[in-house]
Hints:
Elements: E1 8-11, H1 17-27, E2 31-36, H2 42-46, H3 48-54, E3 59-62, H4 68-79, E4 83-86, H5 90-95, H6 100-106, E5 111-116, H7 129-133, H8 149-170, E6 177-181, H9 182-189, H10 191-194, H11 203-207, E7 211-215, E8 220-224, H12 228-238, H13 245-252, H14 257-266, E9 271-273, H15 277-281
Parallel strand pairs: 1-2, 1-4, 2-3, 4-5, 5-6
Antiparallel strand pairs: 7-8, 8-9
Helix pairs in contact: 1-8, 8-9
Amino acid sequence: xxxxxxxxxxxxxxxxxxxxxxxxxxxxxxxxxxxxxxxxxxxxxxxxxxxxxxxxxxxxxxxxxxxxxxxxxxxxxxxxxxxxxxxxxxxxxxxxxxxxxxxxxxxxxxxxxxxxxxxxxxxxxxxxxxxxxxxxxxxxxxxxxxxxxxxxxxxxxxxxxxxxxxxxxxxxxxxxxxxxxxxxxxxxxxxxxxxxxxxxxxxxxxxxxxxxxxxxxxxxxxxxxxxxxxxxxxxxxxxxxxxxxxxxxxxxxxxxxxxxxxxxxxxxxxxxxxxxxxxxxx
Length: 282
């Protein structure tokens, strides 16, 4: 897919959300120059294989933006760029000559998406994925979240915000800069919980037999026959008047996950095996 062919991106965003967002824009055809400090991106030390995948096709430059020569090199890159993605705090961007006023004056066509942890007035607060999720009820101690929800949701917001700014520029909109707060992305992820849909015992929290997890004889399956047509089809195929959890547990427990997954595919039903990616990699 080459929808963004000709769009040139420069990113100084380290760690995960920025690289994940830029990887998405690369998939859409944009070109990317990633500017890293002399010591590199810490994300590479955390997970080198994933770092390499996210930066595939990108130009990686190691530049000391704290030096005059480094700032000059950065300016040369920004002169022809369409989009700048950053993840530094506002005060740090100002010190590097990348504050909003300086960018608007020197590069009037340049769009800028600034990734922050929190929205103003809390944009200077330190944070990471875990601290964005914890206040919203998205952490179940002592277990840690199985993935980096806020970072990955934030990356999608960065990508969509980038596209909106670029489209607005082409339509004559004067706005060139927008901040994306990762805590806001986490807040949006928690919306179903706040609305009560996914709380324990609620419709999507185990209260409806057609949207639940069931033990097969060799593992677990996820059943999501939420729409009436799916629920009616499942009940009919299993010989049930209606879907009730005890009856479903008894039926699903008689066969294996592979059977139920194949059977569901044959009958166009949303039922899949629950898999452990750690075990599958071994």
